User: Fold this.
Amino acid sequence: MFDTWKVLGAIAAGELKGAIAMAIRHALPGDVIDIRPLGSALSGAMTTALIKTEDIEVIRLIVPRGKAIHTHKTNGEVIIQCLEGRIAFTTRGVTHELEGGRLLYLEREQDHSLIGIDDASLLVTILFPRDSLAS
Assistant:
C-alpha cells in the first residue's frame, strides 16, 4: 500500500529524488497553479507535487488534524507556507503555530517535525543545493 507520509519523508530526505517524477504530471514553465485555500474540499484533498525540477520542488502538503510528521531533515533549504488550517511546527527545540498566511524558513539539513492542529494545507518549497544534484 502507498504511504504518502513515508514517500514525503523520503522525498524530503532526498532519497527519492526523481524516482516518482514520471508518475506525476508536474507544472511546466509558464503554467498557472491554483494554490488558493481548498475550504470545504480540504478534508478530501491529497498531497500533490506541483513543480519538480533538478533545483526546486513545490508540494501542496495536506496535513489532517492530529497527523504527525516525525522529526526529519531535508537536503535543501525549505520554505513552509501555511495556506489554511493550523499546524504545530517544531524546529531547534521551539514549537511555532502556523496558520493561514504565515510561513517559516528552514536551512538545509535542519531537523523539524509537525502535527496538524486542524486540517491544514501547506505550500512546501524545497531548494536543492547544487552539490546534491550529483548524488
Observations:
- The first helix runs from residue 4 to 12.
- Helices lie at 4-12.
- The first strand starts at residue 48 and ends at 52.
